[in-house]
Design a protein that fits this description.
Blueprint: H1 2-45, H2 55-62, E1 78-79, E2 88-89, E3 93-94, H3 98-143
Antiparallel strand pairs: 1-2, 2-3
């Protein structure tokens, strides 16, 4: 029983890490779709570098790259940028920045969660160590 608790506690960060890596991948893929649709729109309309772009400009081109609206899983807002400028997300940054930006935010969030994690660790220690000792002590007193 104690082994299961320890494995669950130490295995949890791995599971959380895998779950947290999914949003950045989704966001990067969304930005790639936005970039591809924007480039298609620019090529079809003869737009040049520096031409401002809004979502409504290339909406029809975006439909071929998506099945549903493109939304950042972490609540970021997409900025489309000008023609030839890489799109970005207010939460993850650009495609190139997203992994590093996500790691930075994850560290900040982890630091903020430290008190709660410490409290969880204390509870686990109490359950795995102190509770069995109390049970053994009580049994010893009752058998005397």
């Amino acid at each position: 029983m104690a082994t299961c608790g320890i494995l669950a506690y130490y295995g949890r960060p791995t599971i959380i890490k895998r779950a947290e890596s999914l949003p950045v991948t989704v966001c990067i893929n969304n930005m790639r779709k936005i970039d591809a649709a924007k480039e298609d729109w620019a090529a079809a309309g003869g737009k040049t570098n520096g031409t401002p772009v809004t979502a409504s400009d290339f909406e029809g081109y975006l439909d071929k790259y998506r099945a549903r609206p493109l939304v950042c899983p972490k609540g970021g807002v997409y900025r489309y940028g000008d023609v030839r400028e890489e799109p970005s997300c207010s939460y993850h940054g650009t495609i190139a920045e997203a992994p590093a930006m996500t790691r930075k935010r994850e560290k900040e969030e982890a630091i903020a969660r430290m008190p709660a994690l410490l409290a969880e660790l204390i509870v686990i220690v109490l359950v795995l160590v102190v509770a069995p000792v109390l049970v053994i002590t009580m049994k010893a007193k009752h058998s005397q």
